[in-house]
Amino acid sequence: MERQYDLVIIGAGPAGLSAALYGSRAGLKTLILENGAPGGKLIKTNKISNYPGVKEIEGTQLAMDMFEQATSFQAEYAYGEVNKIDENKDVYLSDGSVVNGKAIILATGTKERLLNIPGEKENLGHGVSFCAVCDGAFFRDKDVVVIGGGNSALEESIYLAGLARSVTIVIRRDVFRAEEHIQSQIEENEKIHVIKKHIPVQILSSEGKVSGIELENVDTHEKQVIECSGIFPYVGQDPNTDCVQDLGVLNERGYVLVDANCQTKIPGIYAAGDVIDKELRQVVTACNDGAIAAQHAFHTIKGI
Ligand code: NAP
After folding, report:
1. N or C terminus: which one in the chain shows less Cβ crowding within 10 Å?
2. How many Å lie between the centroid of ligand 1 and the Cα of residue 198?
3. Quick check: 215 and 171 in contact, CB under 8 A?
4. How far is it, in rounded angstroms, from Cα 40 to Cα 116?
5. Which residue's alpha carbon is at the smallest distance from atom 29 of ligand 1?
6. CA neighbor of 275 nearest in space, from 27, 108, 97
7. 8 A C-beta contact, residue 54 and residue 62
8. Nearest-atom index, ligand 1, CA of 171
9. Among 49, 235, 275, which is best to mutate for testing ligand 1, by the most ligand atoms less than 8 A from CB?
10. Residue 47: its pLDDT value, please?
11. 4-112+237-302 has CATH 3.50.50.60 classification
């Protein structure tokens, strides 16, 4: 890693990798910093079937393809945990090093929201998992519970139903948040059951492993226990924006506010993908943001 780059991209999900592709292809000296594996949420997603031109692909494969393409024009890729970005576009890493970009693109995405109930943290890795694709195989022919009614919860339930004996989805309202076509697949799947109008109260364990979950009816407050070996909370996401807390670029929910060029109010500091304040969080919209940010950064840096 050197001290100075044209473009420093933080995060190697679809937004960051698209930004790297556009930036490096345009000739910008580009660095991608990532503190995990490249691909972002793609590597935790079983199948992607709404990325135009690709009928259906495994998330890990699309991640690999994007990474190879993004780094094929000399974009540098490095492990790096970013603690802070300042107004001068200096990027401070946890190992003490500092890099500067003429432009910075924050593409750090979101992290899974916790249920924050007793038994959750204690049983992480012992039956509680936030990644069906990573851990689903441990629950072959077992009973699992998925919490949440969004796209993530329902898509991952369909994946889990291919492995588990049964999947019980628990939602707190009587309607799902997920898209209609995913709901139809849930209704058609005999292994999937839905419990509506219940919230999780505590996760139960026995001999160091999850044994069940206690639920409460939101109307009657009656409680019931569902016996299960696995629990997958998919109750939404929160943005990874700790490193820009001091810049005054966040909305009240912690997402980054950007203009139509994906630029924050600080010239040269951009954000792209799930981390920005927007309606539609998809692979295709993340790629869109990354391309727009990198292209605008290119024009600004080159003065054209
Ligand atoms: P989401 O859409 O925000 O859904 C979260 C779900 O969890 C909702 O059903 C919500 O219930 C429920 N919930 C929240 N807090 C809860 C709590 N404390 N206890 C019980 N239930 C709780 O989150 P997501 O599914 O992770 O999706 C995030 C974004 O990524 C969305 O924009 C989504 O469209 C997108 N995404 C898209 C795809 C795709 O296009 N194929 C796939 C995955 C994700 P309420 O509905 O009652 O609020």
Report:
1. C
2. 16
3. no
4. 24
5. 281
6. 108
7. yes
8. 21
9. 235
10. 87
11. yes
CA of 54 to the centre of ligand 1 (A): 24
What φ, ψ does residue 244 adopt, rounded to 5°?
Answer: -120, 20
Listed by start position, the domains of the chain span: 4-112+237-302, 121-233
**Residues 6 or more apart in contact with residue 164 via CB below 8 angstroms:** 136, 139, 140, 141, 142, 143, 144, 191, 230
Q: In the prediction, which pLDDT does 26 show?
A: 97
For residue 43, what pLDDT is reported?
Answer: 94
Q: What is the pLDDT of residue 69?
A: 97
Query: What type of residue sits at position 234?
Result: Y
Residues 6+ apart with CB under 8 A from 210: 119, 123, 126, 127, 128, 203, 204, 228, 229, 230, 231
Shared fold status for 4-112+237-302 and 121-233: yes
Q: Which pLDDT belongs to residue 46? A: 84
Reading the block at residue 97, the tokens are: 């090093």
pLDDT < 70: residue spans in the chain: none
Q: What is the pTM of this model?
A: 0.88
What's the one-letter identity of residue 25?
Answer: R
| DSSP designation for 255 | P
The CATH superfamily of 121-233 is FAD/NAD(P)-binding domain (3.50.50.60)
Instruction: Show the DSSP H helices in the chain as ranges.
Output: 14-25, 59-70, 132-135, 151-161, 180-188, 283-302
282 CA → ligand 1 middle, Å: 13
**Surface-to-core class of residue 187, CB atoms within 10 Å of its CB (0-12 exposed, 13-18 middle, 19+ buried):** exposed
**Rounded to whole angstroms, how far apart are CA atoms 190 and 193?**
8
Rg, the chain, Cα only: 21
- Residues identified as active-site: 131, 134-135
Q: Which residues contact 19 (CB under 8 A, 6 or more apart)?
A: 7, 9, 105, 107, 272, 290, 291, 293, 294
